[in-house]
Amino acid sequence: MARPRINVPSTARRGEIVEIKTLIAHPMETGFRPDESGRLRPRDIIHTFVCTLNGEEVFRAELFPAIAANPFIAFTMVATESGDLAFHWTDDRGATQTETVRITVT
Amino acid sequence: MTAPHRDTLSRRRLLAAGAGAAVVALVRPALATPQGMADAIRAFAEGAARAQPGRVRLELPALVENGNSAPLTVTVDSPMTPDAFVRRISVFNEKNPQPNVATFHLGPRSGRAFVSTRMRLADSQTVVAIAELSDGTFWSDSAEVIVTLAACLDG
To answer: Are A71 and A26 in contact (CB under 8 A)?
Structure first.
């Protein structure tokens, strides 16, 4: 999978609600599209997205073929403590892409 | 004019029906139906079928030029405290090949019941968002979308 883009403030006040925007390049092949010969292209999508803060899950999304290509997901989180925000995308092949961003909470 | 023989009439009808069915099968894959969406909602949670309209706000453009990507936002009126929060938000559609769109898992750590993403729309249709609250209740909102260029089917 290609390099994901993550938009999250690098610092926040304790208790502040921060908005996190994520984007990853992926065709999200639905499994319903035919190729030139008329055979269906096999499904190949990112089906799970998880966000953790210092190892603890704060957000999870189950995605289906109806999600557009290059999945964009935005959500919010309460800034409770400084640490590593980790994002994991898992696709139908079983591959997981992980990206980690540091957040400082004062 | 004498009536055609009974066998000829029914054979004609059978041929016509068969030809019609063959044409439909070549044109497009089967689309989800309102019944398919109802089944998917029940699969999400038994109580979801009785979700009440309210507290949930599903935002989608009323007119989408390109069905390959439509912005979608769901917000739920909830304090998101450990005593009262949104557990899951699930989005469903009526006419794509498959009725599910996404299921989001939230919690008190979310701060706000808010999710945003982009979805594919195969045809003009109704999209439904259902929220499961920590008190076991279900709330819903729906949006009608008109699509100019359909996704999934036009490549």
So the answer is: yes
